[in-house]
């Protein structure tokens, strides 16, 4: 079993020299607490992956969790796959995340085998895929490389397969962006974060996480070849899309 996650206090004290956010050992040690308290709707998105797994995964295919972190999405998918001979490929480029993912998977009794890969998702071969999860991962890929990545995922998917893309999104109107950002910050405050923590985290991540509008994501998925693209969930400035090949 994996160790109980620690409470996220990484930005609780003033940091005069903030560095860009990175998924290092410090972040990995508090990540489950961090994402639960920072991303509204996260638990819903993870839980609903089971619905997509039960409907879209086909016999003998592969399921990919790209940017798997500590395996929450991998486990949600694994526990609801109803077809035989399915392999899950879970990928993350941060070794501390992969090691915790390995421990979490080892304590789960679901039958589908999981291949763990510590690498850049842009280097991962995609083939025979019936379902791909890309949860809060594309936003860390450079803007000029996102379209090529999605096109490659599309090419590696089977007809009828699905891509789940979850992202922090930029709102189309300034007043809406301001409202949703304010509500998101209040969500964090109600989850115990101080204004100092909110401010410092925002500064550390603003050059690393580059959000786009929902329309940007939908149009890019359509250009990649997906015929059916829907925003199936949104909570404040976090949205999840499903694209069907």
TrEMBL record:
Residue sites binding S-adenosyl-L-methionine per the record: 42, 67-69, 92-93, 120-121, 135, 202
Enzyme class: transferase
Pfam families: Methyltransf_25
Entry's Gene Ontology BP terms: tRNA wobble uridine modification
InterPro entries per record: CmoA, Methyltransf_25, SAM-dependent_MTases_sf
Domain Methyltransferase stretches: 63-161
Keyword line: S-adenosyl-L-methionine, Transferase
Catalytic activity: prephenate + S-adenosyl-L-methionine = carboxy-S-adenosyl-L-methionine + 3-phenylpyruvate + H2O
EC numbers for this chain: 2.1.3.-
Role, per record: Catalyzes the conversion of S-adenosyl-L-methionine (SAM) to carboxy-S-adenosyl-L-methionine (Cx-SAM).
Family the UniProt entry places it in: Belongs to the class I-like SAM-binding methyltransferase superfamily. Cx-SAM synthase family.
SUBUNIT field: Homodimer.
PANTHER family documented for this protein: CARBOXY-S-ADENOSYL-L-METHIONINE SYNTHASE, TRANS-ACONITATE 2-METHYLTRANSFERASE-RELATED
Protein name: Carboxy-S-adenosyl-L-methionine synthase
Species this chain originates from: Ketobacter alkanivorans
Gene designation: cmoA
